[in-house]
Every structure is written in structure tokens, then in C-alpha cells.
């Protein structure tokens, strides 16, 4: 219980968001970009896979890009930040027919990247395995699951394996709810500030198991119940909150019944919700969500 | 297939095929991203610009809006990048720790599981009927609200309709002060610093260092670095803070000023020089 004053002097007032690492263990420096940077001689100088990757050329991330990035953050920023919001996609794309992804490879890479975050940001002087120098809040990306994009409500093999992989990041009392919704929250400043990590795949158009958020059987419907109860409890306790997840909750990505309902929650809990952080689209931008418009959209949807 | 199953149209299949292609294409070279950003500008920023003056009078903190922040990636779709946010902790240093008499979290989660199970397993209400009833009541409420608004009276949503469907939130209680997203206070976001790795320069430096006789690891250690790409208070569109009202103003400015939009696009693509 860290509710005393001892932690206060160490709050820096900064945090970091990082997303979409997509490390590719098959990445080969000097290979041809045209073959997903996996093999072959480059056709010319512009087709050569560089050690740290080539912008805009379509290959996944070289593992060295991930290792050096985390090292750089550790050396230059770790002492200046309070927590890291890490919004998923830790596995290569399924873009090479000669090397299709397997479920085991996906688990292994998720574990590898998770271990790297633990190793880099854990408080190694503490006996508590959940004690971090910089707290880390992960969320699930559409490339972190098998088959690609497809993810059903838990408990399933995948939700249990993900808990095992992320167990040092997830408060232990949330194990059961995590098993069901792959969502959780962390009090980054206990009793004051929390980060919700919610599983956006349960609302994602690209997930073949998701149709809408209006039917009780839909995973998005179930997760909205979890979000609602959690927000109300955080409000009761006077805790402010940032939301985080992989797929941005905008109409382009979500079924409208899901994006509209979520917009309603953002609107009606705007006294505690500060905003939301997402990845997936690889583009630095912001999208204002209009809560009043969402109420109108609900009416129009009928 | 279309002829056998008449409920599916050719358009449905085509739409599914396009969606599947887009999903597969996510791992490939970026395409049509300027087009996407222009759509964001038209659909969101320009719409705000049209009504910003009217809104600022009735809703000075723009509490009807919430902000979705979408980040650039480490995978070099463009250049790798990430962001450090700065937030207000002034009062945290002086405030005494509040004494809460809350139930333990494990008890809360146990109750939460039970309550959600009860809702999901409620067999008294047919699922389809339940859906339509809650939506019908939502519509009814909104129609009443609109009717009142047209008469010049301030509309108020019905207090009861949402009780039938817990995936709709209760209306925010009256009198709550604006949250940290809207007015500068404890935990309000104040500023951000966007970092990026200039891959072209890094790879060039790396190869040169190898040529100069450095080992691979020495060359990588020297060449690889992140640098500040921009900050939220940097020109040409410095933001005072990064509250919702600052973003709303920025959205409006971006929709009206093509030069600012060019800079915004350059930053959206992490200074990679991307064009469609």
C-alpha cells in the first residue's frame, strides 16, 4: 500500500507513450526490401534493408531498432518519467507467405518484448516483482493475437497466456477480470491517477467476431459494462483517469454502435477522464470526439 | 454465393473484400495517408471550425469534446517516434493524502463480476427485445429533448431510459466542475515533446562510421539516437497548454490555414517527407 506521502517527492510530472514496435526476428540487414527485408540480394542501393530500418519502405522493425530504442529511453528519459503507456502491436506482420506466423511465435514474441520492458524498467533492487522504477501499462494490438485480428471474450487460452506474459504489469486482484475482458487499470499514482488499458479489439471492425455493441452476446457490449462500472468506481474514489488501447476509437475503426457508446462514456465521465492514447494507425494526430453528437447519432442509428 | 444467399448483396462482398485487403495492407508501404489526413481535416477539424464561435459561448471549456490522441509508431512506417507528456503535479506536492474508506479492490472486482454476470444472464428479457427497448427509449428521450430545444427551452435527457441498458452511461451529475482535460488543475496535460529517429541520417552515419573502421556495435551506439522533432509549444502553431480547448482551437486553425496544415502533415508523417 503506497498511499502514504513517501512516493510524492519522486513524481516527475511526465510520462511516455510508445506504440507499434513490430519487431521482426526474420529481418536481415542487407537483404532486399522487396522480400519483406527477409532474404535476397538488393536490386539496387535503394532496395537494401538498413540496420535500423528504412522509413516508408514497408518492412517491419528490425529487432535492433527496438533494442536501441528502449536503451535510448532507459538512458535518456527513464529518470524523468513516471510511467509508460505502451499501446501494443509487438509482433511482425503476416506479410511473407514463405514464413507465415504461428500462434506460438506470436506468444513468444509478446513474451520477449514484455520481458524486455520488465528488464528495462523494473526496480531490480526491490523484492516485489511488480515494483517498477517506471510503471508500464500495456494494451493488446491486433497483430498480437492469432489468428490475425480475431479475438474472442475470455477466458480463453489466449487471455490466460497474455495474463502470464503481462502478469507483472497487471494488479493481481484484476486477474479474473483480465481473463474475461483483456482489460485492466493501474493506479499510477495510488488513489489519485489511473490508466485504463482496454481491449479495443472487442470493438474493432477488423475483428470477425465483432458485429456491434448493442447485443449482450457481443464482446464490446460486455466490455462496455466493465468500462462503465470501473469508471463509476474511479469517480467514487476521486481518481482521474487516462484511457489507453491499441485501435483508436473512431468510426473508421469501430462499429458505430461501439464508437458512439464509448463516446457517451467519455462525455458523461469527462469530470475524471483526461483523454485517451492509441496506436495502430502509425500517424501522429488527434481526433476530437463530440459527445453531444454521439447522443444524436444514437437516435439516428435507430 | 450471392444468388444462393439473397440477404447478401454484391456490395457487401465487395466491401468485405476491400476491408480484408486494407487489413492485409497494414504491414505494407504506407499509401493514401495524406488522403486519410485530409479526411480527418474535413470531417473533424473543419466541422469544429464552422461552429467554434457559437460553441465557445455556450461551452467555454468545450466539454462536449473528448480527445483521442493517436501516436506515431516505432515500426518505420514513417520515421520511428514517441512522445513524452508533461502534466500538472503542482497540487500533488502540497495536498495531504486523502483518507479513503473504500472497499478493497479485490472485493470490488468480485462484485463487478457478479453484477455483469447478472446482466448478461438475465433470462427474463429477450435479448432482441431488450436492445430495441433501450434504443427506443433513447430515441424517445432525444426526440423530446430536441422538441424542447426547438421551443427555446433547455432540453434535459430523461432520467430513466438508460436504466434498461447499462452500456449507456448515466448523465453526468449537475454541478461537477470541469475535469483536468478542460481546466488547468492537478493532472492536466500541460505540454508534450515529440521525439523521432531520423533513419536516413542514422543509417548514413552508421555506414560512414563502419567505413572509418569502427566496429558494428561502436558505430551503432554512436549513430543511433532520438532527437526532438517538435514540441507542443513550438512554432508555427504553439499551444498554450494541451487542454481540450487548446486542441479545439488548433483544429479550427488547421482547417483554415493551409500553411499550418502542411506543417501538421509533415509532423503527422514523423518528418519522413511522405507524400501520397
Model description:
The complex is a heterodimer of chains A (302) and B (276). Chain A is of the alpha/beta class. Helix content of chain A is 30%, strand content 14%. Chain A has 7 helices and 8 strands; from the N terminus they run E-H-E-H-E-H-H-E-E-H-E-H-E-E-H. Chain A has a 4-stranded mixed sheet. Chain A has a 3-stranded parallel sheet with strand order 1-2-3, with helices on one face. The N and C termini of chain A lie far apart (48 Å). Residues 1-6 of chain A have low confidence and may be disordered. Chain B is mainly α. In chain B, strands 2-3-4 form a 3-stranded antiparallel sheet, with no helix packed on it. In chain B, helix 2 (33-58) crosses helix 8 (244-256), helix 6 (199-211) runs antiparallel to helix 7 (216-223) and helix 8 packs across helix 9 (258-268). Classes of the chains: A alpha/beta (302), B mainly alpha (276). Chains A and B meet through strand 1, helix 1, helix 4, helix 5 and helix 6 of A and helix 1, helix 2, strand 1, strand 2 and helix 4 of B.
List the helices and strands and how they pair.
The complex is a heterodimer of chains A (302) and B (276).
Chain A (H helix, E strand, L loop, with lengths): L13 E5 L44 H14 L6 E4 L16 H19 L13 E4 L18 H10 L8 H7 L2 E6 L3 E5 L21 H18 L3 E5 L11 H13 L4 E6 L6 E6 H11 L1
Helix pairs in contact in A: 1-2, 2-3, 5-6, 6-7
Chain B lengths: L9 H16 L7 H26 L6 E6 L10 E7 L2 H5 L10 H16 L6 H24 L38 E8 L2 H13 L4 H8 L3 E5 L12 H13 L1 H11 L8
Antiparallel strand pairs in B: 2-3, 3-4
State the major sheet of chain B.
3 strands, antiparallel
| Cα radius of gyration of chain A in angstroms | 20 Å
| Rg for CA atoms of chain B | 26 Å
Low-confidence stretches of chain A: 1-6
Spatial sequence of strands, sheet with the most strands of chain A: 4-5-6-7
Alpha plus pi helix count of chain A: 7
Our estimate of the beta-strand percent of chain B is 5-15%
Please provide the ordered H/E string of secondary-structure elements of chain A.
Answer: EHEHEHHEEHEHEEH
Amino acid at each position: 500500500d503506497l498511499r502514504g506521502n513517501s512516493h510524492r517527492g519522486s513524481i516527475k510530472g511526465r510520462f511516455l507513450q510508445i506504440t507499434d514496435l513490430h519487431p521482426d526476428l526474420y529481418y536481415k540487414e542487407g537483404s532486399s526490401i522487396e522480400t519483406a527485408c527477409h532474404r535476397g540480394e538488393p536490386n539496387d542501393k535503394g532496395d537494401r534493408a538498413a540496420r535500423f530500418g528504412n522509413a516508408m519502405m514497408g518492412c517491419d522493425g528490425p529487432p535492433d531498432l527496438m533494442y536501441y530504442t528502449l536503451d535510448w529511453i532507459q538512458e535518456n528519459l527513464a529518470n524523468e518519467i513516471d510511467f509508460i503507456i505502451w499501446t501494443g502491436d509487438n509482433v511482425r506482420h503476416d506479410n511473407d507467405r514463405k514464413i507465415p506466423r504461428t500462434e506460438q511465435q506470436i506468444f513468444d514474441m509478446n513474451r520477449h518484448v514484455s520481458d524486455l520492458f520488465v528488464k528495462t524498467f523494473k526496480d531490480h533492487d526491490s523484492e516485489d516483482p511488480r515494483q517498477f522504477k517506471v510503471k508500464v501499462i500495456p494494451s493488446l494490438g491486433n497483430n498480437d493475437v492469432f489468428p490475425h485480428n480475431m479475438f474472442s471474450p475470455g477466458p480463453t487460452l489466449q487471455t490466460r497466456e497474455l495474463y502470464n506474459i503481462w502478469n507483472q504489469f497487471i494488479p493481481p486482484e484484476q486477474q479474473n477480470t483480465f481473463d474475461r475482458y483483456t482489460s485492466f487499470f493501474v493506479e499510477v499514482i495510488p488513489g489519485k491517477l489511473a490508466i485504463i488499458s482496454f481491449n479495443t479489439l472487442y470493438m474493432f471492425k477488423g475483428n470477425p467476431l465483432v458485429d456491434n455493441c448493442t447485443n449482450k452476446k457481443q464482446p464490446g457490449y460486455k466490455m462496455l459494462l466493465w468500462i462503465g462500472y470501473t469508471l463509476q468506481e474511479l469517480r467514487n474514489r476521486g481518481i482521474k483517469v487516462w484511457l489507453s488501447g491499441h485501435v483508436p476509437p473512431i468510426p473508421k475503426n469501430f462499429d458505430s454502435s461501439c464508437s458512439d457508446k464509448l463516446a457517451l462514456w467519455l462525455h458523461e465521465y469527462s469530470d475524471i477522464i483526461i483523454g485517451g492514447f492509441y496506436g495502430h494507425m502509425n500517424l501522429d494526430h488527434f481526433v476530437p470526439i463530440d459527445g453531444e453528437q454521439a447522443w444524436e447519432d444514437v437516435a439516428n442509428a435507430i | 454465393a450471392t444468388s444462393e444467399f439473397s440477404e447478401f448483396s454484391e456490395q457487401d462482398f465487395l466491401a468485405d473484400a476491400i476491408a480484408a485487403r486494407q487489413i492485409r495492407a497494414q504491414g505494407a508501404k504506407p499509401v493514401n495517408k495524406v488522403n486519410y489526413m485530409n479526411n480527418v481535416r474535413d470531417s473533424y477539424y473543419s466541422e469544429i471550425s464552422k461552429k467554434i464561435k457559437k460553441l465557445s459561448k455556450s461551452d467555454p471549456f468545450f466539454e462536449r469534446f473528448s480527445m483521442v490522441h493517436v501516436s506515431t509508431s516505432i515500426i518505420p512506417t514513417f520515421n520511428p517516434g514517441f512522445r513524452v507528456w508533461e502534466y500538472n503535479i503542482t497540487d500533488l506536492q502540497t495536498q495531504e493524502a486523502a483518507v479513503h474508506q473504500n472497499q478493497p479492490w479485490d472485493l470490488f472486482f468480485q462484485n463487478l463480476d457478479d453484477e455483469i454476470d447478472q446482466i448478461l444472464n438475465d433470462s427474463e428479457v429477450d435479448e432482441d427485445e431488450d436492445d430495441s427497448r433501450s434504443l427506443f427509449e433513447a430515441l424517445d428521450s432525444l426526440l423530446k429533448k430536441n422538441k424542447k430545444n426547438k421551443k427555446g427551452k433547455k432540453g434535459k435527457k430523461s432520467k430513466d431510459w438508460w436504466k434498461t441498458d447499462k452500456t449507456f452511461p448515466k448523465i453526468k451529475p449537475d454541478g461537477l466542475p470541469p475535469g483536468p482535460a478542460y481546466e488547468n488543475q492537478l493532472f492536466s496535460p500541460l505540454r508534450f515533446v515529440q521525439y523521432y529517429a531520423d533513419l536516413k541520417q542514422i543509417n548514413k552515419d552508421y555506414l560512414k562510421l563502419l567505413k572509418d573502421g569502427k566496429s558494428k556495435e561502436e558505430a551503432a551506439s554512436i549513430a543511433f539516437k532520438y532527437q526532438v522533432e517538435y514540441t507542443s509549444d513550438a512554432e508555427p502553431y504553439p499551444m498554450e497548454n494541451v487542454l481540450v480547448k487548446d486542441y479545439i482551437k488548433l483544429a479550427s486553425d488547421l482547417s483554415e490555414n493551409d500553411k499550418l496544415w502542411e506543417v501538421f502533415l509533415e509532423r503527422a508523417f514523423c518528418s519522413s517527407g511522405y507524400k501520397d
